[in-house]
Design brief:
Elements: H1 2-48, H2 57-92, H3 108-113, H4 121-134
Helix pairs in contact: 1-2
The structure holds zinc ion.
Length: 135
Amino acid sequence: MAGGLCYQVAKLTNGCVVMNLQSSKTGLIDRRAELMERGQRIHENIHHRDEPLSADFAEQAIELENRELLEALDDEVKLELRQIERALIRIDEEEYESCENCGKDVGEERLKALPYTTLCIRCATAQEENTARQR
Ligand SMILES: [Zn+2]
């Protein structure tokens, strides 16, 4: 049963590699456009707050909190954009599906779940264990 399933997955992977990469790429580009728009809105929000803060102290506190929140969101957007850029470069260089560390296949399922990953499950787990040990 398990063997049959494996075979099916392998067959699918081989048959649709090009198409899947294309749809991964389209998905990443869409996501990038969405994030850029979001980043733009966050920036507008941050900069509009250069106006004098409200006189009311409670309101000031809320505005400051919002600003921190916006900056945190901005960082998140920037980080994700960097990951997308990297993934797009890896697709163009035909490295998207191979692990950055060991060169083996990252696996389609893993890439679907984590489109920005650059490591196969084994290397990612090893890296996590390393980070955990260093802590
Ligand atoms: Zn690896």
